[in-house]
């Protein structure tokens, strides 16, 4: 059986079709329903259809078609269109509409009514997408998994796609309800974390050691005026740091050789660098923290002369007052700490 589809498409370069197009082509208005049952099409909205294996782009076009004039793709889908890292496909495409527009969500489209449209939008390939700041905040509000929010937001901040103050301003401009995860991750960014594993390891160390540890995230380590490297974490007064060794960062032989060379550079200066993959760390975070603290205790007072640590955030644990001062820029993030 040949399954005929209409030649007219709703938008250029899109495989989205409307029920009305079938009628215009002289086909039965129930033809798209037959194609859905045959596994050729999927219903994105009552009268909007996409291919069964639709791309993110086509799913987004369908969401905008359902939303009507003024619709804007936001949340995880907008983050994906902005090519952010670690975005999880959550299925339904979130789309912003004005608060007075009467649209309901479907299994394929999440309609988000708002009285506060995005400050700016990006038009790409015919799609209208929320700016990266609004997209990230909306993604974080809708997400329930802390690790997912950390992964996307911290990478975006670290790579300077957005800034922590921009995200905080956007978050504060909206309702406080649903903002807890986003606020926690923004505090991770102020601490200096660049990834979910870094934030998790920081949590584990502070939970195990409390005020007994002085921790910096992502500091630059300098000895005798020469940069040795940057570490995920550094314990002041010990000459000890740690970093992740994940498949993504150290997957092939060349990358593993670079990891070994980094360790050798630290060792040559009388410093120690511990490695642990995120997967192994997550099997027992407390055990990892105890291992680090034991190694730090054994090195207490063994920092080499000429060592200077250049922070990327506050010394942890930090008080709420200190965190506020770092957030507002009243305290410099990169004031060098000599040994």
Elements, N to C (H/E): EHHEEHEHEEEEHHHHHEEEEEHEHHEHE
| Biggest beta sheet attributes | 4 strands, mixed
* Residue windows where pLDDT falls under 50 for at least 5 positions: none
Number of strands: 16
Give a concise summary.
This protein has 339 residues and is α+β, with helices and mostly antiparallel strands.
Provide an overview of this structure.
This protein has 339 residues and is α+β, with helices and mostly antiparallel strands. The chain is built from 13 helices and 16 strands. Strands 9-12-13-14 form a four-stranded mixed β-sheet, sandwiched between helices. A four-stranded antiparallel β-sheet has the order 11-10-15-16, covered by helices on one side. It has a three-stranded antiparallel β-sheet with strand order 1-3-2. Helix 4 (75-81) packs across helix 5. The longest helix is centred in the C-terminal third of the chain and has 16 residues, at 253-268.
Which helices and strands appear, and what pairs or packs with what?
Layout: E1 17-18, H1 19-24, H2 31-37, E2 41-45, E3 48-51, H3 56-67, E4 72-73, H4 75-81, E5 93-98, E6 109-114, E7 121-124, E8 127-130, H5 132-142, H6 146-158, H7 164-173, H8 180-191, H9 196-209, E9 215-217, E10 220-223, E11 226-230, E12 233-235, E13 240-244, H10 253-268, E14 272-276, H11 278-283, H12 285-298, E15 307-310, H13 320-328, E16 337-338
Parallel strand pairs: 5-6, 13-14
Antiparallel strand pairs: 1-3, 2-3, 4-5, 7-8, 9-12, 10-11, 10-15, 12-13, 15-16
Helix pairs in contact: 4-5, 5-7, 6-8, 6-9, 7-8, 9-12
């Amino acid at each position: 059986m040949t399954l005929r589809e209409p030649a007219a498409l709703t938008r250029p370069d899109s495989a989205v079709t409307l029920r009305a197009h079938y009628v215009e082509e002289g086909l039965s208005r129930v033809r798209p329903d037959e194609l859905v049952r045959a596994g050729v099409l999927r219903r994105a909205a009552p009268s909007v259809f996409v291919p069964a294996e639709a791309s993110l782009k086509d799913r987004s076009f369908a969401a905008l078609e359902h939303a009507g004039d003024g619709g804007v793709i936001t949340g995880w889908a907008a983050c994906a269109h902005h090519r952010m890292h670690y975005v999880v496909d959550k299925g339904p495409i979130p789309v912003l509409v004005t608060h007075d527009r009467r649209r309901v969500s479907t299994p394929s489209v999440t309609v988000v009514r708002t009285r506060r449209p995005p400050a700016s939008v990006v038009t790409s390939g015919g799609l209208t997408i929320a700016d990266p700041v609004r997209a990230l905040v909306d993604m974080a509000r809708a997400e329930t998994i802390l690790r997912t929010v950390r992964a996307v937001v911290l990478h975006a901040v670290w790579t300077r796609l957005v800034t922590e103050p921009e995200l905080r301003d956007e978050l504060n401009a909206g309702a406080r309800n649903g903002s807890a995860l986003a606020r926690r991750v923004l505090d991770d960014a102020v601490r200096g974390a660049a990834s979910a594993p870094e934030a998790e390891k920081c949590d584990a160390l502070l939970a195990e050691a409390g005020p007994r540890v002085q921790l910096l995230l992502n500091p630059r380590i300098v000895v005798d005026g020469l940069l040795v490297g940057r570490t995920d974490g550094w314990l002041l007064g010990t000459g000890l740091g740690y970093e992740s060794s994940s498949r993504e960062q150290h997957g092939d032989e060349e990358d593993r050789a670079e990891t070994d060379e980094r360790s050798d550079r630290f060792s040559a200066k009388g410093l120690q660098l511990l490695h642990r993959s995120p997967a192994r760390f997550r099997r027992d975070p407390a055990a990892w923290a105890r291992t680090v603290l034991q190694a730090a205790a054994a090195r207490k007072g063994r920092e080499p002369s000429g060592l200077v640590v250049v922070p990327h955030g506050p010394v942890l644990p930090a008080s709420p007052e200190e965190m506020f001062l770092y957030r507002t820029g009243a305290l410099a993030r990169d004031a060098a700490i000599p040994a």
